[in-house]
Amino acid sequence: MRTNFKHVPLTLxxxxxxxxxLLTGCKKEENIEPVDNGENNTSSPxxxxxxxxxxxxxxxxxxxxKNQGNGQPDSLSLWLCxxxxxxxxxxxxxxxxxxxxxxxxxxxxxxxxxxxxxxxFNVSLDSNGNRVITGNALPSHPTGVFPIxxxxxxxxxxxxxxxxxxxxxxxxxxxxxxxxxxxSCLPFGPSGISLSGSAIYHGSSTLGNDAxxxxxxxxxxxxxxxxxxxxxxxxxxxxxxxIHVHTTGHSALMxxxxxxxxxxxxxxxxxxxxxxKDLDECHGHKHPVLWDGVMVxxxxxxxxxxxxxxxxxxxxxx
Length: 318
Ligand SMILES: [Zn+2]
Ligand SMILES: [Zn+2]
Hints:
Layout: H1 2-7, H2 10-37, E1 63-65, E2 78-80, E3 121-125, E4 130-135, E5 169-174, E6 192-194, E7 199-200, H3 211-214, E8 222-223, E9 231-232, H4 237-243, E10 253-257, E11 262-264, E12 284-291, E13 294-302
Parallel strand pairs: 1-2, 7-9, 11-13
Antiparallel strand pairs: 3-4, 4-5, 6-7, 6-10, 8-9, 10-11, 12-13
The structure holds zinc ion (ZN) (2 copies).
């Protein structure tokens, strides 16, 4: 070895020496990086336990209704303006309710099928500082079969007879929304628009129970209603992955609520799984977040796996 080394030309030795410095340099940078963002550790990513989810509802009182005397929103709650007199849907979740009173997403039947739609959806910023969203409200992914097929597992609980049809979407929001002096209550119908092209509804059914825990949804966490509008109640993995596959750090944007603030997936700044306890009375919080390609210290909502799932009240002005 020593004799061989002697005959190695000087230029090659210097080249080897230089590249070893370069390699050392690279290694050093890799070692520094995890200290910088704190999210590159090797611990397993936070995964949700979908077998024990807390029920929402008027009982146990985390659905507050303004026109029935609940004048303020509250943390861990959904603040509705009112309940329709002619509510419909499933009210029996006993077959996927655990002995401890929680519900099991994995035991609840799903609406099967893969029906494809011709989705149109566009988000743009105009010259007046507005975000303009247009589309036809159809999702850019397949849905389950609606009306729910008689005889299917889901039909036993929820005979949802409604079809999915097109609806013209035209939303104009401030590109940089502001928090209102007071939050406001949520009406029924769309609370937001998902980047998949369809509506996001809040977590209550028209009966005043936890829609995600009672109504029969497809694998994307969506279904349709009497207005024939396909919409989401739950951040199903297929919906999240369809919009953006999460790897590390804060979740990506999943849509816009009707006050113009964004709604992101269920992961927080350090890649941790968020629950409603981590969020305020409107189911959001404020920290620097990616917004139109730049980091902005801005209020935003999060989808979580626990009630109220997406929004508790409007923090801005709808
Ligand atoms: Zn619904
Ligand atoms: Zn966040």
